[in-house]
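Two folds, back to back.
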Amino acid sequence: MSLRPMGLPPVPEQTVRVARAAFPQESLAIRVRDRLGEVFTDEPFAEAFGVRGAPGLSPGMLSLVTVLQFAENLTDRQAAAMAIRAIDWKYALGLELTDTGFDHSVLPRFRARLVGNGMERVVFDRLLEHCVDAGLVAAGGKQRTDSTHVVSAVRDLNRLELAGESVRAALEALSAAAPDWLARAVDVPEFAHRYGPRVDSWKLPGSKVKRDQLSQVYGQDALRLCRAVWSPDAPAWLREIGAVDIMRQVLVQTYTVRTSSRGKEVVSKREADEDGVPPGHLRLASPYDPDARWSAKGDDLFWLGYKVHLTESCDNTPPEAEAEAEAEAEAEAEAEARGLPKLITDVTTTLSTVPDVKATAPIQQQLADRGLPPAEHYLDSGYPSAELIEAARSRGTVMVTPVLLDRSAQAKSHTGYDKSAFRIDWKARQVRCPQGNTSTGWHPVRQRERDAIVVEFAKTDCQACPVRPECTSARRGNRMLTLYPEHLHTALAAARTEQKTKTWKDKYALRAGVEGTINQALDITGIRRARYRGLPKVRLQHAFSATAINVVRLDAHWTEHPLDRSRTSNLTRLSYRLTA
């Protein structure tokens, strides 16, 4: 398929007349075409298309369809139908009223092409560039970030179901790719009886003994199939089939293969205490989505899927109005009236097992790459570390975030001597304890890929100390401290002191508004449920979801209407208005 860059075609005169008559107040689709038409061009997608072959549909037009689809939370079939029957969509796409549109299967192929060429964020970045040029968002100012869970598009499987379903998925793939080879390699009727219908716990044996036996059968079948695929006389390309490789990984993660005292090969399920199981970030959870992972947050939230981080601007006072707003209350009211919209400036999707602190640096780097680094970045306590706070400060960004307090046993008890009770002499490389004893060891080390200092006190001093139970319970009998390097230790101590003040707490209250943004994304685009399978496609979904939210917010800014939907409660309407 080739591409002949044209962009959105001009809107036919008849379509203009009918659309203006049918929508005297205009609509979202009409305003997007009139104000953002230049965003949806073909040139950014040129690398994803060849120069030979039949010309395809305009990728700029398909990207606009996808944005409108997410803005109205439509399926592919519904979006394709809207391009045929909705007059305002025809106006937005520049189609004749008699145009028959396109088949819904075009949209998944378009998304696959974007994912295959690493263009998931092209439209999101293009819209942000337009907003920067229009002065609607700029570097500096305030931005805030938060994350939420995303449930995968596959069903939840327990370990037994996963073992059986992975074999079934591999057999389905091999039956389609190499049916003749499979017929020679395994007993097809037997496997068809066992793996014809999907593996479902409702149909599995009820007793534990029978379930354990069935689990062993699944393991034996997976091992037999793997040996057949990896045998010398099997075609090498069979090993490259995704479902086959997933079955192999599930086999390794779920079972052990031993030889009994009688020389018989025994396949048994792994036990966490005896055989060990892989860590959560490596453990497969579904043969149909190899990127989905089980994760937990607190005691109440446990999900299979991903995590998405949304960052938005939250300083809606134009820069030129700030000085006036500080001088006079009247100017402040005027600045608020013509305030800028709060726009999503970054969207990052990760595996569900990736902690928030691992996403902080990538998010800030992506903001810097777009020319939108914030002066103040508001985050919750899951995002910061001493190194990240200091690195951001060196780049001109202040992270307004509650740093984690000292979690040592002494600090938790509120009766012992935590680190703050010790006096540190960085030049002499010594620490003095509350009882006046001086440390005898100062050891620079590397812990968890970061620099640290381990301070040790003499056993003779600690064992004779009258308050030793309040200081340490270590078996070795002496107190040890682990410190950050001086500049990080000082920065962390200052941050912990500052966050206890009322001024800081009032300032940090601004972060709470990002919760409304997540709620809006959930209501409009269903962002907490993955539409597609695999991390790249889920990233594409979230990039288009963020683009759709920005379009909705821009539309509210243009029309001076609050951010709400036609049917909503007063409370929800207030929530949307507070995020505007």
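---
second:
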Amino acid sequence: MSALDAALSAQVASVNRLVGQVAGQVDRLSGQVASVHANQHQTRTELQQLRDEFRAFAMQARLAAALQRAETRVGVIQDRLDHEFGHHKVVRRTAVGMLQAFDTGLVSEEAVRAVGDQLMLQTPRYWLAPALVALAAWSADDQALCARAVQEAFRRAPDRTSLLFALVLRRQGRHAESARWLRHYLLAQDPAALGREFAVILESVAQGAFGAAGRAMLREALERWHGLLGADTGAQNTQIERWGAELRSLCPVVDGAEFPYLRAVSPQWPQLAGVLSGARGQQAVLDKYTAITNLEPAPTQRLEDAVDDILDRLVSEYDDEELPLRRDLAYQEAVITHDGDTARARTDTEADASSYDESLDYLTVQSTAALNPAAIGTSEATRRLAVAACRDWFHHAHQGFGRDYRAVVPQDVRARFGAAYPVGAQRFTLPAWEGSYQKPLPELERELGEHWDRHTAPFVASLGYKYTPAVALAVLVCLVALFLGGGGGGPAGAVMAVLIVGGIAWLIIRGLAGQCRRAQDSARQILDRAKRAALEQLVGARADLTAWQHAYEDADAVEARVADLIASLDTGTEGNSPFSGRTVTPEGPRT
């Protein structure tokens, strides 16, 4: 028996060594599997990063190419402007000096001949050249040359020529002659397609350049034009829409960092951000137009100084033939300013498109003088009058503006949770859950917690070791070993074989079950942290929603002050307003 015991002990020791080696190999294999999964996750992350970097590189390449093309195009356009219209610059510079010399009476016959010889030959189609010849000839008392030059200038551009002479004669104190030229100018106008220089008329009236008679004549024409165009419902609605676009452009962007939890969990966040942006736009509108209406323009020293400014603007404007190139140049320069971003450049140039339009209808001129006076060259003094004249468009646009953002205030703000979470080599996907903040917060916390527990418990349980098939397989292997061992070594051999095989199976099962328990514990900890984070987001979003509601109420309360400001606008208090004060509705004029 002692020999048999010694043999059994040696075999058991050998089996234990084999079991230890198998357990070590199992641990190493598990580590290698985890490493493979980690490498796969790292590879996916690197591929996503590479994709993002490639997209950023492609976008940067497009921007760089657009920037280079714009820089090249700017040079080409400038060369073309210099080649085709360079002499126009000379005429415009000469016009400024000529007006000064004409005012002092220092124009000689030699100057008249120089102007006629140079400007007429260099600019055969430009209206300003013969107009300057006419002024020079008049100063030099050359009636024949003056008459021919007037006829030629009037043939080339009757409206601008009439305006120039009206302003010059007004400056010389020839009021009756100035009014006649003003009448010529007005008769030459189409209220649906006014020339760009019409803004100078508005500026002239605002400065009182034509006196009471000229102002009455102009207001009569404007009233007539406003009646013609105001009967067009589409034209009225177009101006209301322009004012609506102005109000929307003043809305500030709501930074998501101000309400981080609400942005992260609420599917209604885009609506909430848009509504708050619109409400905060009320204060921006109030600030801008209060400043405009309260602005006191600097008084001019003499009326002639104001006329000089108007004349300078008239003679320094681009000719219609230059406008397409100037428009293209403005766009290319905007592309350069925005570092190749063609979309932003197009938006900027379209916003100032009226700066390069050959013609505008009277209603658009009136709105443009109020919204973007720099686009048509009017002053802040004229802008104040234009804003008052556009009061009804402003009013209807403001009503629609407030109505639009209030109409999309979410009635039911909800929180949504549902995402995939990496858990070791596995991924747990939380089914979507939504809760309404109309419910009490404790109830939402309870429902979300139960949702997490309901779906995480089966997932964690699925990571446990499956004992039933393993035990069944071990029993089967032991029976096979018992049969084989009994056939070769008798009962003692069979028992020994069963003990050896059973011990190995037990150790393997125990090792695998331990790994599964550790995986379960790790998964439980990861998912518990994710659950706590989700509950924190739920509570934080509720606090953000409360803060949003207070911010919205405060911003929306400014609407009444803006309405009061619009109602206070009155062209009747502005005796020199060049604009019509007719009342309009979105459907047309109201008598």
